[in-house]
Amino acid sequence: MQKEHHCRCPWLDTSKEDYVAYHDQEWGVPLYDDHRLFEFITLESAQAGLSWYTILKKRDGYRSAFKNFVVEEVAKMTEDDVERLMQFEGIIRNRAKIAATINNARRFIEIQKEFGSFSNYQWQFVGGKPLVNDLDKLADYPAITEASTAFAKDLKKRGFKFLGPTTVYAHMQACGMVNDHSNDCFRKAEIISEYE
Questions:
Q1: Residues 6+ apart with CB under 8 A from 183
Q2: Among 96, 107, 100, which Cα is nearest to 154's?
Q3: Average pLDDT of span 120-141
Q4: Residue 104 and residue 120: Cα distance in Å, rounded?
Q5: 134: buried, middle or exposed (CB in 10 Å: 19+, 13-18, 0-12)?
Q6: For residues 27 and 43, what is the distance between their CA atoms, to the nearest angstrom?
Q7: Over the stretch 29-67, which tens digit does the pLDDT of each residue have?
Q8: Which of these is catalytic: 11, 32, 52, 53?
Q9: Is residue 83 a contact partner of residue 57, using CB atoms and an 8 Å limit?
Q10: Is 78 left (phi over 0), alpha (psi -120 to 50) or beta?
Q11: Which of 20, 101, 184, 189 measures 20 to 30 Å from 89, CA to CA?
């Protein structure tokens, strides 16, 4: 369902239907479900150094490579799985990133045990509710923030890989910890009205 008359964020390539669907349905919507959060964190860590759209197009590949993002299953994966996935064209074949996903799954479970859920842990970095930013044009978008730096630092301390402050900020944007839809984007107010 395309709403072509709507204004959208300046970063979005509206010629790509799947990208528009992601922007309209998922990006910036507050997410509290650990299963989805693990998916988002896995995709963001895979994206490091690449375009988000590259990863978005391979999302189904990542689903099949990483057990539909069931964190307990991914945590059990072995070096043999890493070797196998190095031959799998459905994902970015970067050994360090594949190994990082398995490592991150194990660390994710540790956080779940400590905080009751990964969601509880993650949302503490924004005081439990979405931060709404004032963005008019592309130049207004920050790449990192104090919150993403603190979040990334804590993840690193806990042993996560490929989740630096910029990648973590992209994760925060994607799962609605920050509402970074531009002021004229139709989704900005829609999302706010859903949680207020």
A1: 134, 135, 136
A2: 107
A3: 95
A4: 17
A5: exposed
A6: 13
A7: 999 999 999 999 999 999 988 999 999 999 999 999 999
A8: 52
A9: no
A10: beta
A11: 20
State CA 149 to chain mean position distance: 15
Given its phi and psi angles, is residue 182 left (phi above 0), alpha (psi -120 to 50 degrees) or beta? Answer: beta
27 is an active site residue: no
User: Is 44 designated active site?
Assistant: yes
The one catalytic residue among 19, 27, 44, 169 = 44
Identify the DSSP state of 183: T
In the numeric block, which tokens belong to residue 74?
């991914």
* Residues 71/35, Cβ–Cβ less than 8 Å: yes
Retrieve residue 115's tokens. 């905080």
pTM given for the model: 0.94
Structure letter (DSSP) for residue 86: T
Please give the Cα distance from 174 to 22 (Å, whole number): 10
d(CA 125, CA 72): 25
What is the number of other CB atoms lying within 10 angstroms of the CB of residue 36?
15
Q: Which amino acid is at 44?
A: E
CA 53 vs. chain centroid, Å, equals 12
Alpha helix stretches (DSSP H) within the chain: 17-25, 34-47, 52-57, 59-65, 71-75, 79-85, 95-115, 118-123, 146-157, 165-174, 186-195
